[in-house]
Amino acid sequence: HGLNVIHFPIVDFDTPDDMGALKDVLNDVVEKASEGENIAVHCFAGRGRTGMFIALLTRIIREMGGKEAIDWVRQYFPAIETKEQEHIVINYDADG
Question: CA-to-CA distance for 87 and 96, rounded, in angstroms?
Answer without folding.
Answer: 16
